[in-house]
Structure prediction request, 947 residues.
Amino acid sequence: MSVFTGWRAALRIARRDAMRAKGRSALVVAMIALPVLGVTAADIAYRSVDSTEAEKLTARMGSADALFSDPGLGPLQQMPDGNMYDAAGKEAPDGEAPPVDMSTAFPEGARAISILSVPASVTTAYGLTDADITEVRTSDRMARGKIDLVEGAFPHGTDEMAATEPFLKSSGLHIGSRTTVNGAGRTYTITGVVEEPDDLKAKQLYADPGAVIAPWQAAADRDRKVLPPNTGSTEWLVEGSGTAGIGWGDVLAANKAGALVVSRQVVLDPPPDSEIPMARTITDYTPREPVEVSTAAVTVVAMTVLEIVLLAGPAFAVGARRSRRQLGLVGTCGGDRRHIRAVVLSGGLVLGGIGAVTGVAAGLLLTVAFRPLIEDWAGQRFGSLLLKPTELLVIAVLGLVTGLLAALAPAIVAARQSVLESLTGRRGVRRSSRVLPAIGSGALALGVAVAAYGGTTGNSTLVSGGSVVAELGLLACIPVIVGLLGRLGRRLPLSPRMALRDAARNRGRTAPAVAAVMAAVAGSVAIATYMSSSLAESDHDYTPMLSKGTMVLSAVDTEAAERLPLARAAVERNIAVTGGHADFSRLWAGSDCSVYYEDESRCGSLELVKPTGKGHTCPLNTKGAKELAARLSAEEHRAMMRSPACMDEYLSSGSFSSETNNIVVGDAALLHTYAKLDDPAAAAALRAGTPVLLNRAYAKNGEVTLKAVHTYNAKDTRNRKLHPGPARKTTNRLKVYVADAEYAATPGIRMIMPQRTAERLGLHTARSGTVYAVPGPPTDAGTQSVSAAIEQAGGGIWLQTENGPGDREDVILLILTLFAGVVTLGAAAITTGLAKADAEADLTTLSAVGAPPRVRRSLSGFQCVVVALTGVLLGTAAGLVPAVALRLVDQRKALQAMRIEPMESAFTPIVLPWATIGLLALAVPLLAGVLAAVFTRSRLTLARRAG
Prediction:
């Protein structure tokens, strides 16, 4: 019998066996198809989102042939893609070149439309908000692809606008709503919803040219109180005459006129270097290289294949065991071991092929079905649904090979069985290997040691290699660990005791499932741990502008400060605040520099003197800092950076005034609301006229030194009359209440001075703003309502909020947790199903001896819990190895940077994602057990003994 004839017979047997065992076959197909589906969907989405050069040009210039702009250089030279350009000639012109008359730069017969943007304040359904308004004829065909209509109609005329969906959502407006542009003083009707295909999250308004900027400028010319529009530079979308487009010759002609041109035709088909004048003068220009496949991507694919093999392998093993009589008959008919292996491997080929084709087809259909959601998540539209047949074929082949690999180990085991054992149904007795656990233990110890060494030496390659070796070593130890589980059930009730012993007896199906769970959980825990640690590091390094949970109203001048009561009423009416408010005043000496800023030498100054010496001077920002930094550990450096002496070097200033001394005038309410200092002694000190110092580095023996130069400007006639003569210098030693060291981290305030103390020192004060305590950042509706009320009252007051360090990336952590959870549930369900299929005789005996029906349900539930919990715990331990080692690499890099720049943070914490670990270790195994118990039939139909 030829090789091909043998394989044809094996494939027929495998196909018929798959049709007979439909449940097990569907399980294997699903396990192979699901990852293929995910990889296919990810490949199509990535290729579709990763726009081609032509699609990027369309997003930038719409359907036009070219985009013209004036960089202000006069005659210039450029590269074909327009990313690099310079003034023509050896020397750039002195000063700014005159504006280019674009009509002379456009090719003959070309048609053009202009694009010009301006930031503005516009009214909303809630009040007032800031937005960018772009003047462009959106209805022109050249704008298609750059600005597309979603709903309604394009604006036509000078009293209409179109808006993007994000703007409408944040402003509460809709088609038909009217909005007024402050400055222009004109009201516009929103006629349509548009979008920028390459930026779906943009908050934009669009109007026809001349609808906003021209009337705004006219209003500014008539009234000096109206600020003129702060427009950007104008761009032009240009369409060439006929079908020739804009060629390289047209670009060179436009360059001579001073215009920079990005031409679709030139970018897609660039001229040779010999025709590019700029190419002769530069040697370091290189086009962007395609991104190579990363090691991380290869690792992810390899781990995915490993998990499928681990999950699907037991199914093939059970299938081979259930078909052992059939395989024995193959042996009695003259088949040898290779034929038996071929039968089992053919099962992998058949089911792998079905799973691969199903996965690719389902991935394509799901991508098409969920395309809008993917585009919204990516923030841009697909240029087209890009399918690369070669890549899809590779993905399908990967699924096929995965099925073959999953059947490889069961095929080898089945081929080793004797014909007699196969025909009689005896399983044979094989002792567990003692070599494999020993090798695994050694590999585990070696891998952990290598990863730790790589972390301490900063070698990421050693970390990756050591982590893989450690995980493989732990995989080799899983059969022994599973075998030990049976000993834990001696004192447990019937169902958990049987589940543990069944797992221990049938390690061939339990160990791979546990290994698959471990691999999935290890990857998720490793990434989640690294991300949680990185987030904690970024939180530590973040410098806030305001104290957490506060919001500040600040007046720009004394006149605006008179409108603070109206602003406070608006805040309390539209924004959720907790408790009362605290007013504060700014403090200065001599003439107010915020008023007489044009001549700073003729206004006063105020300085809070910082003493020198230990506890006052930051040792990381003085002579010998590098030598000191070289001796510090990361934790010692962190403690020094958080000390009052050093904290003052990098904390922000100017949140409450333009003065750098960070002294404000306030009372006990400011201490409580903003500084969060609830100390009766501090409040009593303020009432008694004693300043409260929040940064103790400025105090020496309970006193601070305050130097003032009382200079009065000649234009400050009122104060100049009261203080004639030359500038007066004063130095005052003040007794202060010194707060604890932790309050040195209070942003924007170094010392709070009572009003009467400022008056006693001859200093000037003016009401400046109000602080509120808030439960969180205000909503868009709230801030827009307050902004409208402030503007209506006369403006000059701005609202500051503290939004924290930014995005928390909790979505990624949630996705990782869900991924590990789904794999855990799947592995547990597969193992439970295989255990049921493999142990029908045991379950029949159990029912025959009178076991209650609920025992069958509870047994399935505990079998699921055993697999899920064991895999999660081992995976958590395995995942911590690379995460901790990589954080050690980061710490080494941070320490090296800190020793070069001692004020750089070297804090690299290791933070465990307890929420993720808790969900995986508790919720997922419990859910797996409950689901298994619910979906298991409690009654069993007893089979009649044949013969």
About this structure: The mean pLDDT is 81. DSSP finds 32 helices and 23 strands in the chain. The radius of gyration is 37 Å.
